[in-house]
């Protein structure tokens, strides 16, 4: 390409396009040499244990997400109740710190998937990427990506700092729902109350604006611009 004075395209860009095409029902992935399966000397069964199918590494995530300069790049996680009974799904926007939370009956992929789609569907137009850890509750990430027309990425194992904002937000939520608390006693009204408290709390990093102000002001301006 260089010899023909054409702009080079990285292999990461090509693969991301193919992944997006696959989620949209396309068949470009069928033309890959290994059908999107990476070569390994170990057996496929050995390599697949503990792995999430179709997982896309954070290494392929657009660089702009790191800048935290736009609304729509979300981090997702779960908080577990006492004795691993029930859980809370947490989503936080990297730019505005706007937080969405929902209690679920179990930390299971189907339940968590439904919760993520439920929380983000109203703001789908402002859902550009989602990043999670490697928990099995995010195994249906491709379904989430297709339902919200977004890109879903996974942080590298044992590198929680790659989702530092979500970790910090979970700490704030834990102030209301401590580790030894039984989540079955938490009502939906309490969940909404805590969500509102977080989103209406002025933040120094936001120039003492609240996450709600930054999030909705940006959304409003985007519609006015159109």
Word description of this protein:
This protein has helices at residues 11-23, 44-48, 64-67, 109-120, 141-148, 164-174, 188-199, 211-225, and strands at residues 73-80, 87-93, 99-104, 129-132, 151-154. With 226 residues, the protein is an alpha/beta fold. The protein has two domains: 10-37; 58-225, Nucleotidyltransferase, domain 5 (2-Layer Sandwich), CATH 3.30.420. Helix 4 runs parallel beside helix 5 (141-148). The radius of gyration is 19 Å and the shape is globular.
Class by SSE composition: alpha/beta
The portion of residues assigned to helices is 25-40%
Count helical runs: 8
Topology, number of strands? 5
Query: Can you tell me the CATH architecture of the largest domain?
Result: 2-Layer Sandwich
Radius of gyration: 19 Å
Gist of the model:
This protein is of the alpha/beta class and 226 residues long.
Secondary structure layout:
Elements: H1 11-23, H2 44-48, H3 64-67, E1 73-80, E2 87-93, E3 99-104, H4 109-120, E4 129-132, H5 141-148, E5 151-154, H6 164-174, H7 188-199, H8 211-225
Helix pairs in contact: 4-5
Comma- or semicolon-separated keywords:
2 domains; 226 residues; five-stranded mixed beta sheet; Nucleotidyltransferase, domain 5; 5 strands; alpha/beta
């Amino acid at each position: 390409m260089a010899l023909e004075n054409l702009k080079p395209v990285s292999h990461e860009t090509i693969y991301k396009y193919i992944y997006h095409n696959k989620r949209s029902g396309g068949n470009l992935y069928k033309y890959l040499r290994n059908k999107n399966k990476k070569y390994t000397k170990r057996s496929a069964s050995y390599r697949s244990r503990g792995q999430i199918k179709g997982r896309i590494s954070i290494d392929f995530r657009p660089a702009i997400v790191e800048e935290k300069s736009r609304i729509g790049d979300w981090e997702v996680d779960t908080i577990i109740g006492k004795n691993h009974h029930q859980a809370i799904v947490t989503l936080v926007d990297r730019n505005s710190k706007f937080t969405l939370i929902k209690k679920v009956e179990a930390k299971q992929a189907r339940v968590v998937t439904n919760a993520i789609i439920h929380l983000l569907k109203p703001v789908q137009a402002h859902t550009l990427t989602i990043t999670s850890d490697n928990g099995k509750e995010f195994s249906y990430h491709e379904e989430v990506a297709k339902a919200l027309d977004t890109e879903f990425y996974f942080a590298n194992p044992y590198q929680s700092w790659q989702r530092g904002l979500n970790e910090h937000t979970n700490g704030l939520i834990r102030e209301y729902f401590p580790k030894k608390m039984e989540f079955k006693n938490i009502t939906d009204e309490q969940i909404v109350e805590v969500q509102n408290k977080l989103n209406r709390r002025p933040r120094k990093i936001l120039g003492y604006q609240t996450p709600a102000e930054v999030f909705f002001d940006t959304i409003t301006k985007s519609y006015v611009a159109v």
